[in-house]
Design a protein that fits this description.
Strand content: 15-25%
Radius of gyration: 19 Å
Oligomer: single chain
Number of helices: 11
Number of domains: 2
Helix content: 25-40%
Bound molecules: 2'-monophosphoadenosine-5'-diphosphate
Largest sheet: 6 strands, mixed
Strand order of the largest sheet: 2-1-3-5-6-4
CATH architecture of the largest domain: 3-Layer(aba) Sandwich
CATH class of the largest domain: Alpha Beta
Structural class: alpha/beta
Length: 276
């Protein structure tokens, strides 16, 4: 039998803006590996059909993005602990018999980015302030708690969603009203924006930032623009700033390694290629 060319892809809707094809194709080229990686525009009503067909078409796995990260869990035959905790998956591995293994590497990507860009950062140095309580925030909270952060100050426009995360993830979380979000920054040694505020085409993040202290680690999941107004203000206040592009790059590492057999490096060249 002829050897099949391993395929992977990213499933989402919309998908045209995804940077993942550029990332994985760059790594395939760099390491001289056989394989390809394609963007797949899939509507929710077709998700199951597509997932069942993919292994038969030569796919060894896929990334999953908006709006499928939660829905995809119901079609998985096996789910990693971290995907179970987060309640969502972004990385699928198709076994030879077509069975689907679902994992979540967002928290890994978040942490690997901080460790690479801010090696001096100590998650245990003090409380972490998290803005937002959506899907991305769940992965970040799990990752921060895992890294030993003792207190997580959590603020979200819709307070009920922050309260729900507190019920789920426990007493380490203290919920702060959205109108008070600026105050929690004073106590934090780590600040993370998980909302879409500050992204091109989205409203500004209007949380008052004058509480930011020099030396605080500030990171933004928004990477378009790369230097968000939050990161600019944080830098001016003497904070250590880390942009969100690295998280996107690092979250792709475990999937690529499982699909194509080589653990890829995230470096300056990777950033350049993905930014185009
Ligand atoms: P993701 O998976 O990227 O986290 P999401 O689950 O839709 O996406 O969450 C978006 C986050 O951005 C939420 O915390 C949302 O706040 P609400 O829970 O109140 O909706 C936050 N967000 C989006 N637009 C916002 C706005 N205009 N003001 C404040 N927060 C906003």
């Amino acid at each position: 039998m002829k050897q099949k060319i391993p395929l992977a892809g990213v499933i989402g809707s919309p998908i045209a803006q995804s940077k993942s094809p550029r990332l994985h194709r760059h790594w395939l080229r760099r390491y001289g590996l056989r394989g390809d990686y394609v963007p797949l525009h899939v509507e929710p009503e077709n998700l199951e059909t597509v997932l069942r067909a993919m292994p038969k078409m030569g796919f060894v796995g896929a990334n999953v993005t908006i709006p499928h990260k939660v829905a995809v869990m119901q079609f998985a035959d096996q789910i990693s602990d971290r995907a179970t905790l987060v309640g969502a998956a972004n990385t699928l591995i198709f076994k030879d018999d077509g069975r689907i293994f679902a994992d979540n590497t967002d928290g890994y990507g978040f942490m690997a980015n901080l460790r690479q860009q801010a090696p001096e950062w100590d998650p245990k140095a003090g409380p972490a302030a998290v803005l937002g309580a959506g899907g991305a925030a769940r992965a970040i909270i799990v990752a921060l708690a895992d890294a030993g952060v003792t207190e997580i100050l959590l603020s979200n426009r819709t307070r009920a969603k922050a309260d729900a995360l507190r019920s789920e993830f426990g007493a380490r979380i203290r919920v702060v009203d959205w109108v008070q979000a600026g105050n929690m920054l004073e106590d934090a040694t780590t600040v993370v924006n998980t909302t879409s505020l500050g992204m091109v085409g989205q409203p500004d993040l209007r949380v008052p930032l004058d509480g930011l202290r020099a030396g605080t680690l500030v990171t933004d999941l928004v990477y378009n623009p790369l230097r968000t107004p939050l990161l600019e203000a944080a830098q001016a206040a003497g904070c250590v700033t880390v942009d969100g592009l690295g998280m996107l790059l690092h979250q792709g590492v475990p999937g690529f390694e499982r699909w194509f057999g080589t653990r890829p490096e995230v470096d300056e060249e990777t950033r350049r290629v993905v930014l185009g």
